[in-house]
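REVIEWER CHECKLIST
Item 1: Sequence provided? yes
Item 2: Single chain? yes
Item 3: Sequence as submitted:
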Amino acid sequence: MGIDKLHRLTNSKRSRIILALDFNIPRTEDILSLVENKVVGLKIGLPFILSEGLSSTKNLLEKWSEKFYFIADFKLADIPEIMAEELKLISDIGFDAAIIHLFQGGVSRALTGLRLDIIGIAMMSHPESIRFEPLFDDLIAEAVFSGAVGVVIGASKTGYIRRTRKIAGRSLLIFSPGIGVQGAPYGSAISAGADYEIIGRSITLSSNPGEEARKAAEAGWSNG
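Item 4: Structure as written out by the authors:
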């Protein structure tokens, strides 16, 4: 599974930064060249793929497969049989991992025989995600039971990062979006117990993406 690749990249780059490509951005390849030494993974959203096209996305994954851990962020939520087919197709494209919802249950049935890391959503970064609160412990339990490698918890929800550590210990990696443009400082989620910080526009729209990635990586590594 790709989790070994993620750990290798983390240690070799001394970084815990995942770059979010949620939108089609100019000069994608140029930006990747500038940040590759300080970014361990790429989280690719559906808008990016719909803009770039599937063929171009596959080419991107093939070209950079040794440099980054690739996460498909489609936030899937469906019955296990449909999700199993969706995840197989995502794996065939070349992704190392996929982000899915957990609330619908039956996740373990969707993962049977799958060679793809799964990251479940437990608490998103936007304010309205408080609707997840009554389900939070159940979502973490579903992630553990299904064999997910990790969960998504918004960087501003530090209490839920700490609660996950109490419930699941180190059995789940914690990936935290909402860094930078959405308000959370670099390194803050990792300081609270997260493993990786997901950063998008603060880097991709910067006048100096390489320097911004370096600052984010150093802040996260020193707090890890």
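Item 5: Key structural point noted by reviewer: The mean pLDDT is 94.
Item 6: Recommendation: ____
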